[in-house]
Amino acid sequence: VQLVESGGGLVQAGGSLRLSCQFSGFTFDEYGIGWFRQAPGKEREGVSCLMSSDGSTYYAHSVKGRFTISRDNPKNLAYLQMDGLKPEDTGLYSCHTKVARGWNLIDYWGLGTQVTVSS
Question: Does position 117 have pLDDT exceeding 90, yes or no?
Answer without folding.
Answer: yes
